[in-house]
């Protein structure tokens, strides 16, 4: 059996976009910088993310089972399983099976239930897929929905701002009661601030907020969740992991604005990755 327990390993299930800084092209370097071996499970291949006017797309659903069969034959074990964007009900089912197959007693499962933003589900996400995502969330130890996704998971009506913190904590707790031990609702607008809402089993709810800077950019959620997954696998508290992730996302946005990087190109995290490595 191959375990290599001297180094932490996370299996990362997400798409591969060749251009635009998101998904696996974000997770691989960030996990590596945090001294975690990233083991990708590609769900699809894009030439660039779908925020660009044109893109090439190749669905990898039919190959995922064969891919994972070889990991089973090798007896691979992982310290973490981290799931990101999934493009179909079939992929959600494959990931659920993978978790049951590879989750050992010490394997941490992190689910980023990527379903929508700005109050709307993505066009590809049908009501059936949203329902299936709830089943996947039940298998996670840590779940990191944005506000839109939290509303979808709990059946609440979305609003952009004006949430009371008691409402936010109640929503996070409702998601936690689905099965996860920890939930972070990301990117809640509170005036000039963005707040992350943290609910953790056996602990009081917490809030991590930072000043809003720059423009909204694709891929920031991928940066945030990758850091949370890495830090949690290394044993950090959920609050500390969220604070570190939020701090780095803010640093990335500021640097991207400074360099006038086009919004659709995401955040130039490469320019400040050395800073993340040094942070405790």
Q: Would you spell out the secondary-structure blueprint of this structure?
A:
Blueprint: E1 9-17, H1 24-33, E2 37-46, E3 57-59, H2 61-74, E4 80-83, H3 89-102, E5 108-111, E6 116-117, E7 120-121, H4 127-137, E8 142-143, H5 147-154, H6 165-176, E9 182-190, E10 193-200, E11 206-211, H7 220-233, H8 238-258, H9 273-278
Parallel strand pairs: 1-2, 1-4, 4-5, 5-8, 8-9
Antiparallel strand pairs: 2-3, 6-7, 9-10, 10-11
Helix pairs in contact: 1-7, 2-3, 3-4, 5-6, 7-8
GO molecular function, one term: pyridoxal kinase activity
InterPro entries: PM/HMP-P_kinase-1, PyrdxlKinase, Ribokinase-like
Organism: Hungatella effluvii
Distance between the termini: 33 Å
Shape: globular
What is the helix/strand order?
EHEEHEHEEEHEHHEEEHHH
CATH superfamily: Ribokinase
- Strands of the biggest beta sheet: in what spatial order? 3-2-1-4-5-8-9-10-11
How many independent structural domains?
1
Classified by CATH, the class is Alpha Beta
Q: What report would you give on this structure?
A:
The protein is α/β, with parallel strands linked by helices and 280 residues long. It has a single domain, classed as 3-Layer(aba) Sandwich (UDP-N-acetylmuramoyl-L-alanine:D-glutamate ligase). The chain has helices spanning 24-33, 61-74, 89-102, 127-137, 147-154, 165-176, 220-233, 238-258, 273-278, and strands at residues 9-17, 37-46, 57-59, 80-83, 108-111, 116-117, 120-121, 142-143, 182-190, 193-200, 206-211. The strands form 2 sheets. The protein has a 9-stranded mixed beta sheet, sandwiched between helices. A two-stranded antiparallel sheet has the order 6-7. Strand 6 and strand 7 (120-121) form a beta hairpin. Helix 1 packs parallel to helix 7 (220-233) and helix 5 (147-154) crosses helix 6 (165-176). The radius of gyration is 18 Å and the shape is globular. It starts with 8 loop residues before the first strand and ends with a helix. InterPro entries: PM/HMP-P_kinase-1 (IPR013749), PyrdxlKinase (IPR004625), Ribokinase-like (IPR029056). Pfam families: Phos_pyr_kin (PF08543). GO terms for molecular function: ATP binding; pyridoxal kinase activity. Its EC number is 2.7.1.35.
């Amino acid at each position: 059996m191959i375990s290599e327990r001297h180094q932490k390993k996370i299996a990362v299930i997400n798409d591969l976009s060749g251009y635009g800084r998101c998904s696996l092209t974000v997770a691989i370097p960030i996990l590596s910088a945090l001294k975690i071996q990233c083991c990708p499970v590609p769900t699809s291949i894009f030439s660039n993310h779908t925020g660009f006017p044109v893109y090439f797309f190749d669905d990898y659903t039919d190959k995922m089972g064969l891919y994972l069969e070889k990991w089973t034959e090798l007896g691979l074990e992982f310290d973490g399983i981290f799931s990101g964007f999934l493009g179909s009900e079939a992929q959600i089912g494959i990931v659920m099976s993978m978790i049951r197959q590879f989750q050992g007693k010490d394997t941490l499962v992190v689910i980023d239930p990527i379903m929508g933003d700005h109050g709307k589900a993505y066009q590809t996400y049908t009501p059936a897929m949203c329902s299936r995502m709830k089943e996947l969330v039940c298998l996670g130890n840590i779940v990191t929905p944005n506000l839109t996704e939290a509303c979808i998971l709990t059946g609440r009506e979305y609003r952009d701002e004006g949430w009371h913190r008691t409402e936010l904590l109640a929503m996070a707790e409702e998601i936690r009661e689905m099965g996860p031990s920890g939930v972070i609702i990301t990117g809640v607008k509170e005036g000039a601030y963005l707040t992350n809402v943290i609910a953790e089993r056996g602990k009081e709810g917490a809030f991590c907020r930072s000043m809003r800077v720059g423009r909204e950019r694709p891929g920031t959620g991928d940066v945030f969740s990758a850091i949370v997954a890495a830090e949690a696998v290394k044993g950090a508290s959920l609050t500390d992991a969220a604070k570190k992730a939020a701090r780095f996302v803010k640093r990335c946005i500021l640097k991207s604005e400074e360099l006038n990087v086009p919004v659709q190109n995401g955040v130039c995290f490469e320019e400040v990755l050395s800073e993340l490595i040094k942070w405790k």
